[in-house]
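Tokens as discussed.
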């Protein structure tokens, strides 16, 4: 897939997986740490100390003060061997900088925790520009319920706690998602939940999602 330079103000589906399809999340703490990084790395100010970040409390809590962001996270999903994000770039080069910080930071944490060295992800992240509202809404369903679509959960009604869907349904305190744009197109969270679940069932059964991403 050809790397494109993200444009400010546009939305992108961003994803990556573990090298050789290896698991990148081994424990609950790994998932929680990745959520911490999604929050902490989203800022104009540079990150000076990964050591400090690696010693932050694992629990994700709302930010105590506002900071100027470089991306907006619309939704996300963390799976055992890969992750998906829908991002809106709100600062020049924001997605590239955010993903560089995320890759370096989490790889360092994971390697230290598991006494390993070397790369963790299969190359650089991949990104696809989202060119319409309909595409954004449909992809939000794909990303938000990706844990179910890829067969990690057998329960069609389950809300995976490390996903944007958990935030939209009020089942997560992570507070990572900018929900305004998605919520404008639905009466309430239950209607969005129904939209996500109907589409994720279709995508899981028909493999419709494969036209939007590379095979994971």
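Sequence:
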């Amino acid at each position: 897939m050809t790397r494109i330079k993200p444009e400010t103000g546009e939305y992108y589906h961003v994803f990556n997986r573990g090298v050789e399809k290896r698991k990148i999340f081994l424990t609950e703490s790994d998932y929680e740490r990745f959520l911490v990084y999604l929050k902490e790395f989203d800022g104009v100010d540079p990150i000076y100390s990964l050591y400090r970040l690696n010693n932050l409390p694992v629990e994700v809590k709302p930010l105590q003060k506002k900071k100027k962001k470089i991306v907006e996270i619309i939704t996300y999903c963390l799976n055992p061997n890969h992750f998906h994000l829908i991002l809106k770039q709100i600062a020049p080069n924001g997605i590239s900088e955010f993903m560089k910080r995320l890759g370096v930071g989490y790889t360092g944490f994971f390697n230290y925790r598991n006494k390993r060295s070397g790369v963790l992800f299969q190359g650089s992240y991949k990104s696809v520009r989202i060119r319409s509202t309909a595409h954004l809404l449909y992809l939000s369903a794909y990303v938000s319920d990706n844990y179910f679509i890829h067969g990690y959960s057998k329960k069609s009604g389950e809300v995976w706690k490390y996903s944007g869907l958990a935030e939209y349904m009020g089942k997560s305190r992570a507070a990572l998602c900018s929900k305004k744009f998605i919520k404008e197109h639905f009466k309430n969270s239950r209607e969005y939940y129904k939209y996500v679940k109907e589409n994720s069932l279709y995508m899981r059964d028909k493999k419709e999602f494969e036209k939007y991403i590379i095979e994971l």
